[in-house]
Amino acid sequence: MAMKIEVVEIEKPEGVEAIIGQGNFSVFTVDDLARALLTAVPGIKFGIAMNEAKPQLTRFTGNDKELEELAARNALKIGGGHVFVILMRDAFPINVLNTVKSHPAVVMVYGASENPLQLIVAETELGRAVLGIVDGKAATKIETEEQKRERRELVERIGYTID
Amino acid sequence: MAMKIEVVEIEKPEGVEAIIGQGNFSVFTVDDLARALLTAVPGIKFGIAMNEAKPQLTRFTGNDKELEELAARNALKIGGGHVFVILMRDAFPINVLNTVKSHPAVVMVYGASENPLQLIVAETELGRAVLGIVDGKAATKIETEEQKRERRELVERIGYTID
Amino acid sequence: MAMKIEVVEIEKPEGVEAIIGQGNFSVFTVDDLARALLTAVPGIKFGIAMNEAKPQLTRFTGNDKELEELAARNALKIGGGHVFVILMRDAFPINVLNTVKSHPAVVMVYGASENPLQLIVAETELGRAVLGIVDGKAATKIETEEQKRERRELVERIGYTID
Amino acid sequence: MAMKIEVVEIEKPEGVEAIIGQGNFSVFTVDDLARALLTAVPGIKFGIAMNEAKPQLTRFTGNDKELEELAARNALKIGGGHVFVILMRDAFPINVLNTVKSHPAVVMVYGASENPLQLIVAETELGRAVLGIVDGKAATKIETEEQKRERRELVERIGYTID
Questions:
Q1: Interchain contact B4–C (C-beta under 8 A)
Q2: Domains of chain B
Q3: Which of A7, B114, D38, D68 could disulfide-pair with D1, CB 3.0 to 4.6 Å?
Q4: What is the tens place of the pLDDT at every residue in D20-33?
């Protein structure tokens, strides 16, 4: 039996955070993970999608139509059974990563990022398996003192500070 | 020394859940994991099989003849030493995954699914090693509102609801 | 820069259990893991070896000369920096696996087995990295009822029973 | 889409310890992990760098100019988004590994070592993903009794002893 390797590009607008992983029991988990996200972060806006193999459907839900549809389109593009895609605004991966990883239907998380993402996917005649993740463009320069100061002002501006 | 890569198809009827992993001490573990499954879920029906390398035998047990034989046939097909296959009905992976992962003889779980499964297996002149898992067919469509409603009715019908 | 893949055969007599993993701080860890093994299982006989890259030495210790030398020979054969090999008698992996995995200098365990073992090793011009493990010969038959009864008698004979 | 595999050499002087891993939210995490290191080990000297994909910058901080610049140079060389490099003196990986792994923005640690290191990196047209790590030169000899005595004196001299 043969196997080929493919690179799948994730579609998402800037500013949207993604968490991509492997789980099971899609018909239940897509909603149950959604509830877990709602209780983890007040005000989170998200879409979650998860592939089912029988019927061959990408299941999805969330509390933001645009993110729900986008999560679904990306999960469909990856194709791999039981792969889930979470896309969110007004929440960072560090707010929910432990919630996601400890969910009883989650096997593993491949990556968590606001960057453009690509997945390395193996395809057999049955289906597709995620092998790895490329998390955004490669760095090309080291930050300057000026850029470091701007970065810290940014982190403070978005609220990660105590007085 | 040479190594070749092979795709192994798991045989199982629809509706049967599978958990495939790596462990050790097969002569003991096949029965001890079986006991752990029995205590984890009342009414679980399952077969478990685990490969031993010396003698080259697939060990198996369970509480359902059909699932026991099927688990054994699949473990034999994979071949890899210390690989185990659990096939079950009347229980979902989310009910037992933590029980399985925390068993002292379990090294790791490769996948947990009701979907058709394929394993990517490396073969040397000594034996075989599991490299990855394909978990069912790729999704081909996004669910419609109608399919979402049917899915939620299904989850409720199988008992995941409180009044 | 180039990379090649090699299969390394572990040498050990029948009846000797092996645990192979990755860690750090070899000059300290080889002895400290040895102490952890001594406190984990009364009567354990073992050798442990761990590779150091500077100087390029395989460090080793234990409480059994034969197993110490054999562990050292195998670690040397694998070559990979910070790889450790534990060989033991009068103890099973299930007795010490959690002790080993939770040691602060252990990164991961590749496998734990009494079977003949092969390691899939990548080699660059700098050194060598373990990619995977083949744990014994592939199974060729499913156990018979007779063999199952013999297996259970064996488990009982080696003490895994309560009256 | 194509993918190529590359071996990236980490630059660092002897005696400097490295921890290389994957995380997220670089603008925040580079400083927050730095604070975690400071509270984990009194007297630690370190530099930490982490790649951001937009802008394509290697972020860095620490409490030692040389190590900060070196960590930044190495992270830049690896390139992979959200990859972090910690370089340190006066602290060993065993002092901080659990602190690093349990940080809410850390996904995984690829390796922790004072040895020369190489990373196996996949490159797509988008960016770069770490696939594995070579941790120092391969061992070429087994330690002699004399070398074992010297090693134990060294461990004692660096303080791992109680009277």
A1: no
A2: 4-137 (3.40.1520.10)
A3: A7
A4: 988 888 899 999 99
